[in-house]
Each structure stands twice: as structure tokens, then as C-alpha cells.
Amino acid sequence: MASSYGEDASKQALRSAYMELPTLSPSHQARLDGDILSHLRMLAEYRACQLVLAFPSQREEADTIEAARRAREEGKTVAVPTVASDGKITFHLDDGTPLSMDDELIDSSVCLVPGLIFDAEGYRVAYGAGYVDNFLTTYPGCKVSLARTVQISSNPLPRDPHDVAVDVLVSDGAIWRCRR
Questions:
Q1: Is 34 among the domain residues?
Q2: Quick count: other Cβ atoms within 10 Å of Cβ 36?
Q3: Is residue 88 situated within a structural domain?
Q4: How far apart are CA 132 and CA 1, in angstroms?
Q5: Do the strands 89-93 and 124-125 form a parallel or antiparallel pair, or are they unpaired?
Q6: Fewer beta carbons within 10 Å, N or C terminal of the chain?
Q7: Is residue 92 part of a domain?
Q8: What is the pTM of this model?
Q9: In this predicted model, what pLDDT tens digit does every residue of 68-94 receive, in sequence order?
């Protein structure tokens, strides 16, 4: 895989290199994602929250969709985003009602943020339109990324000025607070 240092340190190089790694078997991926969900349920902020905002995972990202489904089963309110043509994100409840960002539950909510590669400071490389970072800039709740251990870099990732780090990484092996 491309390193996060030197000439190959671009986000695109890291994305491409990650996509070239052998894919996990469906059963292995399911086991890892199950471990991630077990660790998510141990996170104090998750246990305490009533509202979960869930950006849907794509392709090789850890499964936020299943995490949202389980949150509903646990009695939590779940909201998922839509992106307008101007890039503005609005979260909607299951019945289609737009969630007001002034709602009192937002401050104590958890937002599940997918990605391909993460570093210890909570920065991530994802599929790259920047809409999620734009939303996270003003989001007051706990930003949580779900990641398989293989997705976590031991080196800092390249960063752009608009990038926003998450507060917590939850993996199949551990939960940790990101340094900043």
C-alpha cells in the first residue's frame, strides 16, 4: 500500500492502494464488523445517546448501515443524510422528516462517519467529495468512525485544511480516543 509519507502520500494514492488490497471474504468481513458493533455498544457516548446520525458506508468501508439498524433495534432514533446539489447535507428521520440541527438531541448524539483509511488522530481518507467534512465542521456531537484494524494507518494521513477528525475510532480490536 502507498505510505502516508513521501511522494506517494496523496489521498488518491492511498485510496487506490487500499482498493488494490485483497478483499476480505464475506464471512471474515462479517466477523470483523460484528466485533466493531460489539465495541460500539461499549462506547459510553453511544450507550448514552438517544440519536444516531449515520452516514451510509460504501463498498469496502466498515458497515455503518448495520450499525444504524441495530441502533433502531435498541430504541435509538436514527437519521440518515441526503446531499443537495449544492453539497448541503440534511439528515432525515425514518419517516422522512428533516432533522433540525437545533434539536436538543443533537449535542448528545453520535454521528457514524465511514472511511477507507484512518490515523490515530482521527483523520480519514474516504471517497472524497468533502461533504461529510463540511457537515462535521459544525456538528457538536460525538464523531465516531467504524474501522477494521487493517484500515488504520500507523502513520499520519495527508490532510487538507477542510478535513475534520473524528473523536473516536471503534475497530474490531479496540476503542480509542483520537489525539488532537
A1: yes
A2: 24
A3: yes
A4: 25
A5: unpaired
A6: C
A7: yes
A8: 0.87
A9: 999 999 999 999 999 888 888 999 999
